[in-house]
Design a protein that fits this description.
The protein is α/β, with parallel strands linked by helices. It contains 14 helices and 35 strands. The protein has five domains: 3-164, MoaB/Mog-like domain (Molybdenum Cofactor Biosythetic Enzyme, Chain A, 3-Layer(aba) Sandwich); 195-210 and 373-520, MoaB/Mog-like domain (Molybdenum Cofactor Biosythetic Enzyme, Chain A, 3-Layer(aba) Sandwich); 216-237 and 337-370, Molybdopterin biosynthesis moea protein, domain 2 (Alpha-Beta Complex), CATH 3.90.105; 243-332, Molybdopterin biosynthesis moeA protein, domain 3; 531-603, Beta-clip (Beta Barrel).
Length: 608
């Protein structure tokens, strides 16, 4: 149980506390991570050094806080003085905490180099500076949360807790795997898992996994690509006032055509003129400006002539209306674009650039979106070497993990690198445990075939009590694909254990993993990849008994028709067959698809 404090530093939020999103979001995260704790101190102060110092001292006095977080005022602006105020209050600096915040923030965005946090200790209170955005504040808390219990124990000289933490660090408790590697002669020679069809595998995944109901509230400018967790209705009409469609003159239609006196000028953004327009008066108006009271039409400037100006020639005085206006001409009525209360964006829809623009147009600063599943990617095998290391005899570079991480990123899923699991039961178990601690969905490559060192399924079953929902799929490439669920520390985890061949990883990810992530995220509109009809440019043979997903390039020919061409040798180890591929052609076992035939292509990428 900890006593926390949150000091928001913002002149704007001090005047309008409802605009403070970072403080409440950080408080929510603190109590989620440390549910028995409390937030004893909450204040909002202006960007004034003396006021920040005074607030810090109030929070520290009387031991109100074990940890005090400041939010905002750490940037380069002249008003950003939170670090300077903090430095005058603390007795000791904590550079390790500052380094952790900066180094891990830089891994998220290079713009973190423009933040100037200070962390330190005053009496028994630890003070940390966080940035002013809700997203950044929560991220920074995530970077330091693991150290908070030990840091508080150290500051309060709680020797029992300190010694316990030191012992745990120096003597990590790892329970060895229950799995034993069988001698080559004793290993299984037939899989215990039945071969199921691809569509059956998809149906099993859909039956087992359900979409999340958890949501995040994110700033509108960060909402692109996310899935809405609420219906969005227009809180006010757009436009909220009668607005001019053109540059010209606001007029009374009953005056008809003829010479008129220019009473005044109004531009977009000006306060609406409430004084009624009198007979024979007009107002010069620009596109988007509010139509003055009493005017019921706008005459475009092309339908007028200048008759008289002021003495200095700077302003119009008399203008001739050449064409009699019609009522409502070139005026956008209130709610013409969007009526108040209209449902503009539906729950479960994925936000595009246009829909983000609609949110901004309606005045939304943030929006509720479904929480994305946390994903880790791991590789398995003694033969694997990181691309920045020197190959030793018998080793190959780990291309699968880089490929999978990049493939996921191309569909807006930022996955974590879960490392390489070596071919021992203990190492596989430890690697999985680390991934389970950080993620909801784990994607692995390798270790699922019939070799004596293919240990993944055994470790999942024997050490984690996992349920294998399917262990073989009737497809090429990707036959050994495994789908597993399990409970780990009270939370449900999902594992897609994919084959080790690079192409198998890509194809099975496209068919099973990415559609699943979309559904888990609440995307009710995504059912499967779209299909397109195209003409084959070359002969495609499948000599295997299994149906094969052939990688093809789909493009438009000079006649604006869709054509598809195989990407070459389709062996599952040849990753080059995925280069330039944007579609998959399913070819039945022991069949040939002739050139010139019309085929249905599963389209997973952009048309070339």
């Amino acid at each position: 149980m900890f006593k926390f404090g949150i000091l928001t530093v913002s002149t704007t939020c001090s005047e309008k506390p409802q605009l403070d999103t970072a403080g409440p979001k950080l408080e929510q995260e603190l109590l989620k991570v440390f549910p028995q704790s409390s937030v004893n101190f909450k204040e909002i102060v202006t960007d004034d050094k003396k006021k920040i110092i005074s607030a810090l001292q109030r929070a520290v006095n009387g031991r109100n806080c074990d940890v005090l977080f400041t939010v905002g005022g750490t940037g380069f602006a002249s008003s950003d003085v939170t670090p300077e105020a903090t430095r005058e209050v603390i007795e000791k600096e904590a550079p390790g905490l500052t380094h952790a915040i900066l180094s891990k923030s830089l891994a998220v965005t290079p713009m973190a180099m423009l933040s100037r946090p200070i962390c330190g200790i005053k009496d028994t209170t630890i003070i940390m500076n966080f940035p002013g955005s809700a997203k950044a504040a929560v991220e920074c808390f995530g970077f330091v949360k693991a150290a908070i219990p030990h840091a508080v124990a150290l500051v309060n000289e709680d020797l029992q807790k300190v010694r316990k933490t030191h012992h745990a660090v120096q003597n990590p408790e790892f329970v060895p795997s229950k799995v034993k590697i069988l001698a080559g002669a004793a290993r299984n020679r037939k899989s215990q898992y039945p071969m199921i069809d691809v569509e059956d595998a998809k149906n099993i995944i859909q039956e087992i996994l359900t979409a999340t109901q958890d949501f995040d509230e994110v700033p509108v400018e960060q909402a692109m690509g996310r899935v809405l967790a609420e219906d969005v209705k227009a809180p006010q009409p757009i436009p909220p006032f009668p607005a001019s469609i053109k540059d010209g003159y606001a007029v009374r239609t009953e005056d008809g055509a003829g010479r008129r006196v220019v009473r005044s000028v109004t531009a977009a953004g000006d306060q609406p003129q409430t004084k009624e327009l009198q007979p024979q008066e007009i107002v010069r108006i620009s596109t988007g400006a509010a139509v003055p009271a009493g005017a019921d039409a706008v005459v475009q400037i092309e339908d007028t002539a200048l008759i008289e100006t002021t003495e200095d020639g700077s302003e119009e005085k008399v203008v001739d209306i050449l064409v009699a206006p019609k009522k409502g001409q070139d005026i956008r009525k209130i709610g013409n674009d969007v009526e108040q209360g209209t449902l503009v964006l539906e729950k479960h829809s994925r936000l595009t650039a246009a829909s983000v623009g609609v949110l901004a147009m309606l005045g939304f600063s943030s929006v509720k979106v479904y929480r994305r599943p946390l994903v880790s990617v791991i590789s398995t095998g003694n033969e694997l070497c990181h691309p920045n290391e020197t190959l030793k005899p018998g080793q190959i570079y780990d291309s699968n993990k880089v490929t999978l991480l990049s493939l996921l990123k191309s569909y807006d899923y930022a996955a974590l690198d879960g490392g390489i699991a070596r071919d021992t039961p203990d190492n596989v178990k430890a690697t999985l445990e680390r991934a389970f601690d950080r993620s909801d969905v784990i994607i692995s490559s390798g270790g699922v075939s019939m070799g004596e060192y293919d240990l993944l399924k055994q470790v999942l079953i024997e050490d984690f009590g996992a349920t294998v929902h399917f262990g073989r799929v009737n497809m090429k490439p990707g036959k050994p694909t495994v789908f597993v669920t399990l409970d780990y520390k009270g939370k449900k985890k999902t594992v897609f254990a994919l084959p080790g061949n690079p192409v198998s990883c890509c194809v099975t990810s496209l068919l099973f993993v990415i559609p699943t992530l979309k559904r888990l995220e609440g995307d009710a509109l995504f059912l499967d990849w779209p299909r397109i009809t195209a003409t084959l440019e070359n002969i495609i043979n499948n000599n295997d008994i299994r149906p094969e997903y052939v990688r093809v390039t789909v493009r438009r020919n000079p006649d604006n028709q869709f054509v598809a061409k195989s990407t070459g040798n389709q062996i599952s180890s040849r990753l080059n067959s995925m280069v330039n591929a944007n579609g998959l052609l399913l070819v039945s076992g022991k069949t040939q698809q002739p050139a010139g035939s019309t085929q249905s292509i599963l389209l997973f990428g952009q048309l070339l």
